Amino acid sequence: MIIKKIEDIKAFEGNEGTQIKQIISPGETDNAIRYSIAHCTIIPGKSSKPHTMKTSEMYYILQGEGIMHIDSETKQVNQNDLIFVPPMSKQFLENNGESDLTVLCIVDPAWKQEDEILE
User: Fold this and answer.
1) Which among 23, 36, 65, 84 has most CB atoms closer than 10 A?
2) What is the reported pLDDT for 118?
3) From CA 33, how far away is CA 19, in angstroms rounded?
């Protein structure tokens, strides 16, 4: 059994104003899973880095609000929204609210640096 507490996971800096905590990935489960899950916090007025993933990705909004950019499409997103991002789509998430925007990022197959193309 694996149980993790977000507060015990060390964060790393994504874009300025963005903190990322890698929650779980296949290597931590003897490859019993093929996806990865990260916890991401974006402070007001900031955004994730524009990027393209070779794999599919989903964002689940835990708290806050923002604007999701996928290719030429933009949509307002709020708490409890789930966003599916198809493979090879240019994407980034912008916090246009007054409080932190916190999301779970689920990547399947699991995130690998070589699968991410930064703009």
Assistant:
1) 36
2) 75
3) 24
Q: What are the backbone angles phi and psi of residue 118, rounded to the nearest 5°?
A: -85, 145
Q: Which amino acid is at 59?
A: Y
The SS3 assignment for 45 reads: coil
93: nearest Cα among 59, 53, 55: 59
Residue 31 is predicted with a pLDDT of: 67
The DSSP code for 96 is -
